[in-house]
Design a protein that fits this description.
This protein has 10 helices and 13 strands. It is of the alpha/beta class and about 325 residues long. It has a 4-stranded parallel beta sheet, sandwiched between helices. A 4-stranded parallel beta sheet has the order 11-10-12-13, with helices on both faces.
């Protein structure tokens, strides 16, 4: 707090406090009416997958602000005081509890009533559990919602992402009932597109030579489970996690055993470990994008385009016909 605030006389401070209460009441009224000062619902989204849902479902009726800027690794996000303060002025917050601790804490303190937590809109599972030196991420180990160790990367599974979309729709409609019919219509269109994407993955990966793929970051556990694949991650759920010597040795052995052709890296984290491992094993490298943000390095301009690129990369790596 600015030191000048301590020098305000008591009477003036009391007047200022009343003014702040009036402003708060107006802000709460705006939220209840479902509209910001520009006539649009003010929505704050924690990072790209949540931002995409808010924009697709809200359409012209929402003004969406993202806390995580393009090119920033979402797991590492630290909020500025200004961002934290602005969060309390949102009509709706769309986020994913457990992915970004700074956001979780700020949402808790914001006082915003209409929040959509993606982690509560679908079922979370544990992925990346090491067994005999292997980080198996097929989704065999399940956890309750919000438990420590649960994998937050639900948006990479089109089916789970559709479940989250329906929950976001409910929250927007609650905050802005006058436009509920439009939000429902937009959600129906989005869910239909996600259903089609799910079918494309199922059909595109049906006839394959291998089930196993290697990634730097254990972000694809839900996707792997959905389509009967096995993700072997160099690190873990945290994209910056350093692999142990035992893990590298295990990856070398399983790569030969399961006919792995490719080591995947991503756009927002370092690719050094992936390239080193691929070089040692004489494997190719390619991008498998966890879709945590869209940048000029992304192979696509939105969620669907990048997922199509991911499907093609997996088809090539797994020898799909």
């Amino acid at each position: 707090m600015n030191k000048r605030h301590r020098l305000i006389p008591a009477a003036v401070a009391g007047t200022a406090a009343l003014g702040l209460l009036t402003l708060s009441a107006c802000s709460a009224s705006d939220a209840a009416d479902g509209a910001g000062s520009n006539g649009k619902l003010k929505v704050t989204a924690s990072f790209y997958p949540m931002e995409f849902l808010a924009k697709e479902i809200g359409g012209d009726h929402v003004a969406v602000t993202a806390l995580t800027k393009p090119g920033v690794e979402p797991h590492d996000l630290e909020l500025t005081p200004r961002q934290t303060a602005a969060l309390g002025k949102a009509d709706v917050i769309v986020y994913l509890k457990g992915l970004q601790p700074a956001v979780d804490e700020a949402v808790k303190q914001s006082g915003v009533k209409n929040t959509a937590d993606a982690a509560s809109l679908t079922t979370l599972e544990e992925h990346g559990t090491e067994v005999d030196g292997h980080a198996h991420t097929t989704g065999d180990n399940h956890s309750g919602e919000g438990e420590a160790g649960a994998d937050p990367h639900v948006w990479l599974d089109p089916v789970k992402y559709a479940e989250v979309a329906k929950g976001v729709n409910t929250t927007l409609a609650k905050a802005d009932p006058d436009n509920a019919a439009t939000y429902q219509k937009n959600t129906d269109v989005l869910v239909k597109k996600l259903d089609a994407l799910n079918n494309q993955f199922k059909d595109g990966l049906k006839n394959r030579a291998s089930d196993t793929f290697v990634t730097t970051h254990a972000a694809f556990g839900y996707l792997a489970e959905r389509y009967g694949l096995v993700e072997e991650a160099i690190g873990g759920i945290d994209p910056e996690a350093e692999p142990s010597g035992a893990r590298i040795k295990a990856l070398q052995q399983l790569s030969a055993k399961h006919h792995v052709t490719t080591v995947f890296f991503e756009t927002l984290a370092s690719n050094a470990t992936a390239k080193t491992l691929a070089g040692d094993l004489k494997l190719r490298t390619d991008v498998l994008d966890p879709l945590e943000g869209i940048t000029d390095k992304s192979k696509g301009t939105d969620y669907f385009e990048v997922q199509q690129s991911n499907l093609k990369a997996l088809q090539t790596a797994l020898g799909s016909k």
